[in-house]
């Protein structure tokens, strides 16, 4: 029987640490649910001690997402480990993931600790974590630049304290495949207690070798691989889940291993992560890039038509991309629409399906043909729509070459007694979008910085839908929003408001978590 490789997804932790990839709690829950349906074995839901928002999001995921183990990262400090446990304890399969650096440069300059002190701290951290949680993972940060003999010493010590998963990170993406494989092979056989532990790897992509190093480690005996959707992550990112999984599957004979991933859900998961992080996938990215299955050259097209295997080593269907692009229009009925959703792997419940079909009809009225990309964009857009604090009722913009752009925006809020309150403001700006954003700022009364703003056509054609992605910043924190419309100004206004709504929800959630915690401490004291 093929050896099973556990897929540990850290999109919500290491992935989210990447500049501009921050996600709100509700978005994280949405991604976690998708990861569970993709079949990952472990979801690293966040770094609980890093912020109250992260802790709240981890708790929500632990409470609501079944199937995979739910992990939180923690430095080798009791307070971090306690916060991690607070985050994951409601999961059916909680895991605390604690780490400390083991390379000479990190120990001397970052930790200012001697190797002996690092061993003692690692042992104490695992001991404390094991008192709380049955499953503890230990990582030796910067392992690939550590002395291998010291790694063995640390790993033996933490296994003796009860760590059952030992992770070997190539933190700065420095390793080369053959030397990383040799390190893994040595650790597998040369570490006392490793035969009863899961040996894991975690590779960064600074030299573009994260996936190659991960695959080399699998050949050398690694049991778990840590990775992210679309390869998002610190600096150049982490090893991409979709590339590892498809390499293991497509070249099965070379590895003799299997994963529990439903590869037909890869494309959908990639699009969701790109949307919620606002981090686009490059067109030529392996597996999930727009061009990954496109055949432009005539000679290639001819070959593919004669026999797809001439230029395709895996089918688009195997990663969840339907081969034939079917175009729908305003005369298409519910049946054809539902069938297309099904083929695209979009799962919606009754009411969501009705709303999506209504959005499709509305789009089909404005656009001659509705493509798969349009439908996916609509589905992702509707997936993001949680109850909104601020609902856009309408906006009117006046702009042109010889007038100052002016925008009137009307937003609606639902008051605690259930009544609706209308808020309307007018602003002038440097162009219609700026005027729209300024009018919204006046209504919501917050000082927000626009950090990133992109608009891109979903498909070709003059009537294409524009997808706007926006990142706002306030007090050092960031939130993403996206909006979709055939009118790019409307898409932009919706994206801006979407980011504000994500922010409002986050702040509200954190506020209620904080008051619940203070109420609990008051009642304890009483
Ligand atoms: O890259 C790294 O070393 C990490 C560890 C904390 C696992 O992300
Ligand atoms: Zn990392």
Distance between the termini: 59 Å
Ligand inventory? 3-methyl-2-oxobutanoic acid, zinc ion
Oligomer: single chain
Which blocks of ≥5 consecutive residues have pLDDT under 50?
none
Report the sheet with the most strands, covering strand number, pairing sense and barrel closure.
Answer: 8 strands, parallel, barrel
The CATH superfamily title of the largest domain: Aldolase class I
**Helical amount:** 40-55%
Description of the structure:
With about 525 residues, the chain is α/β, with parallel strands linked by helices. The protein has 18 helices and 16 strands. The protein has three domains: about 5-275, TIM Barrel (Alpha-Beta Barrel), CATH 3.20.20.70; about 300-385, Recoverin, domain 1 (Orthogonal Bundle); about 390-510, Alpha-isopropylmalate synthase LeuA, regulatory domain (Double Stranded RNA Binding Domain, 2-Layer Sandwich). It has helices at about 10-15, 25-40, 50-65, 80-90, 105-110, 115-130, 150-160, 175-190, 210-220, 240-250, 250-255, 265-275, 300-305, 335-345, 350-365, 370-385, 430-445, 490-525, and strands at about 5, 5-10, 40-45, 70-75, 95-100, 135-140, 165-170, 200-205, 225, 255-260, 390-400, 405-415, 420-430, 450-455, 465-475, 475-485. It has an eight-stranded parallel barrel with strand order 2-3-4-5-6-7-8-9, surrounded by seven helices. Strands 11-12-13 form a three-stranded antiparallel sheet. Helix 4 (about 80-90) runs parallel beside helix 6 and helix 8 runs parallel beside helix 9. The structure holds 3-methyl-2-oxobutanoic acid and zinc ion (ZN). Zinc ion (ZN) binds near residues 169 and 204.
């Amino acid at each position: 029987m093929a050896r099973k490789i556990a897929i540990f997804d850290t999109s919500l932790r290491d992935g989210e640490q990447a500049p501009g990839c921050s996600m709100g709690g509700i978005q994280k829950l949405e991604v976690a649910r998708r990861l569970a349906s993709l079949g990952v074995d472990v979801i690293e839901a966040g770094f609980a001690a890093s912020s109250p928002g992260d802790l709240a999001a981890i708790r929500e995921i632990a409470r609501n997402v079944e199937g995979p183990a739910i992990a939180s990262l923690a430095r080798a400090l009791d307070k971090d480990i306690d916060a991690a446990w607070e985050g994951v304890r409601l999961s059916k399969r909680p895991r605390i993931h604690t780490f400390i650096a083991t390379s000479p440069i990190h120990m001397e300059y970052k930790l200012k600790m001697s190797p002996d002190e690092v061993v003692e701290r690692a042992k104490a951290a695992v001991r404390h974590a094991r008192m709380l949680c049955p499953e503890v993972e230990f990582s030796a940060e910067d392992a690939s630049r550590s002395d291998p003999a010291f790694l063995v010493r640390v790993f033996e010590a933490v296994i003796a304290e009860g760590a059952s998963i030992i992770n070997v990170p190539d933190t700065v993406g420095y390793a080369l495949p053959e030397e990383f494989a040799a390190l893994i092979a040595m650790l597998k056989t040369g570490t006392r207690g490793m035969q009863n532990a899961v040996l894991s790897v975690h590779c960064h992509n600074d030299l573009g070798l994260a996936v190659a190093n991960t695959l080399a480690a699998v050949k050398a005996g690694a049991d778990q691989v840590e990775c992210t959707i679309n390869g998002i992550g610190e600096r150049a990112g982490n090893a991409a889940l979709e590339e590892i999984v498809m390499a293991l599957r497509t070249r099965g004979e070379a590895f003799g291993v299997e994963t529990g991933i439903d590869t037909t859900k890869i494309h959908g998961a990639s699009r969701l992560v790109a949307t919620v992080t606002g981090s686009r996938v490059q067109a030529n990215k392996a597996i999930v890039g727009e061009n990954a299955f496109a055949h432009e050259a005539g000679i290639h097209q001819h070959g593919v038509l004669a026999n797809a295997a001439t230029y395709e080593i895996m089918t688009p269907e195997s990663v969840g991309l339907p081969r034939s692009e079917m175009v729908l229009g305003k005369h298409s009925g519910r049946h054809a629409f539902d069938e297309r959703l099904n083929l695209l792997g979009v799962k919606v419940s009754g009411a969501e399906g009705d709303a999506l079909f209504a959005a499709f009809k509305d789009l089909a009225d404005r656009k001659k043909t509705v493509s798969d990309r349009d439908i996916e964009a609509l589905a992702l857009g509707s997936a993001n729509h949680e109850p909104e604090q601020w609902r856009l009722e309408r906006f009117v913009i006046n702009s042109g070459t010889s007038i100052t752009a002016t925008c009137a925006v009307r937003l609606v809020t639902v008051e605690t007694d259930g009544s609706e309150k209308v808020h309307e403001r007018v602003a002038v700006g440097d162009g219609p979008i700026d005027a729209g954003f300024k009018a919204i700022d006046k209504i919501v009364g917050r000082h927000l910085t626009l950090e990133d703003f992109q608009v891109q056509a979903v498909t070709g054609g003059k009537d294409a839908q524009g997808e706007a992605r926006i990142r706002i910043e306030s007090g050092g924190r960031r939130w993403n929003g996206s909006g979709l419309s055939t009118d790019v100004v409307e898409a932009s206004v919706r994206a801006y408001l979407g980011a504000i709504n994500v922010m409002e929800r986050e702040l509200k959630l954190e506020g209620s978590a904080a008051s619940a915690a203070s109420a609990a401490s008051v009642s304890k004291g009483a």
